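So, who can interpret the following?
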Amino acid sequence: MGAFTESQEALVTSSYETFKQNASDLSVLFYTFILEKAPGAKNLFSFLKDSDGVPKDNPNLKAHAAKVFELVVDSAVQLRTKGAVEIADANLGSIHVQKGVTDAQFVVVKEALLKTVKEATGAKWSDELSNAWEVAYDELAAAIKKAMG
């Protein structure tokens, strides 16, 4: 991978600000996209396990979506400033191991993340924006997988 540019970082951070303006609805959409692609993933999330579909008013769902998106944004910042991603939360790897998260599930989350950002940004969506989010997510996923052992 080449260096993550200031422009790429700005694309990620500015589109995240757009996401935050409608975080509740977009969080529901994010998990809807995940479950459309991988219905079995429902059991990986405590806030989805015992619900029919994706609950619209669940604060845990919104908090988890925010954490996922914030981790990708942080990944973008780290890539530009350090050239690599380091996981600050030492438990992140073990939680993913405990839940039995697979490589295929990381791909599902990436696809859902990109579809959600596309929905959030509307006409501002572009190949450059998509690529910036993809690189930031891929590097975050690689760091989590490394922490998983």
Observations:
- The CA atoms of residues 96 and 102 lie 9 Å apart.
- The longest helix spans residues 59-81.
- The helical segments are 6-20, 23-37, 46-49, 59-81, 91-99, 103-121, 127-148.
